[in-house]
Amino acid sequence: MKNINGIGEIILFFVSILAALGWFFSKYALVGFPPVGFIGLRFFSAALIFFPFAYPQLKRLTRSETIRALATGLFFAIFMATWIMAITFNNNLGSGAFLVSISMLLAPLISWLVFRNKPLRTFWIALPTALCGVYLLANAKGDLHFSIDSSLYLLASLFSAIYFVLHNQYSKSIPPLPLTTLQLSVVGVICLTYSLIMEPWQADIPISAIGWLATSILVATNFRYILQTIGQRYCHIANASIIMLLEPVWTIILSVILLGEQLTTIKIVGSALILSALLIYRVQNLIGLFTRRNR
User: Would 25 disulfide with which of 179, 216, 223, 276, CB 3.0-4.6 Å?
Assistant: First the structure.
């Protein structure tokens, strides 16, 4: 759809800020909820909100499409559970956001290994650059020692990449609203089931935690998804891809302001290397896409 005076870019710029804020909404909610239980409540509630709007399209999905949506939702659940465990252990959400963002470079590698989709040549420049950044961010002690939270962020990045590859491979024909509703439902059911069996719950949950849970559901999940869908309709794919790379940038800025994360020189260099790698690959990826389309 044609861009209207840059409205798509403005909306997606706001969406990138909402995505960053979602890290902090989740962090604050953990004072009253067990980590995986929080994710379960957040995503199951978001799915319930979407369900009435998605129901007409859900009825038209074939059995094969439903199975594919549920299967990709399983890896989405594993990714989210790992991610929430990572942010439970520390206040360095900015570094974590950059570590998780390398999933966009792990995804082409996984797609190549599993589905033989060969990545572009610049991938072999972007990946080593990103790995140098990962080393600087994760090696706080500088002696090949990775902390628990850094290891969990990297594991979450791996699961995010697997989810992205499977989602892209198997869900192209499914409309976005029913697909999202089914995937959110899977995350909610799996995480809630695990939490009720394995995690202790507080007898008295603080009102503030309930408020952050509601904010995570309504603002960071439902409202963000709606805005992102609208923004992408009015924004060129090249601009959309670059704008959404701002999420870890906003996250690290907010982490410094709200959580007192120490922004050392090594951390700045590591973050800059990862962001540079993402930009190198994203721009070349889009050039390759446009070249193939115009042949």
Answer: 216
Q: What is the rounded (10 degree) CA torsion for 134, 135, 138, 141?
A: -160
Model's pTM, two decimal places? Answer: 0.89
- The Cα–Cα gap between 134 and 103 comes to 12
Confidence of residue 174 (pLDDT cuts 50, 70, 90): confident
The pair of three-digit structure tokens given for residue 86, joined into one six-digit string = 């990572």
Please state, in angstroms and as integers, the Cα–Cα distance from residue 181 to each residue in 4, 68, 176, 216, following that order.
Answer: 29, 13, 8, 16
DSSP 159-195: HHHHHHHHHHHH-TTS-HHHHHHHHHHHHHHHHHHHH
Q: Taking 90 as the threshold, does the pLDDT of residue 122 lie above it?
A: no
Closest residue by Cα to residue 213 from 97, 94, 96, 84: 84
Mean pLDDT of 95-107: 92
What are the backbone angles phi and psi of residue 2, rounded to the nearest 5°?
-65, 140
Percent of the chain with pLDDT over 70: 91
Q: Residue 84 in contact with residue 35, Cβ under 8 Å?
A: yes
205: left (phi over 0), alpha (psi -120 to 50) or beta: beta
Mean pLDDT of the chain: 88
- pLDDT (tens digit, 9 = 90+) per residue, 263-277? 888 889 999 999 999
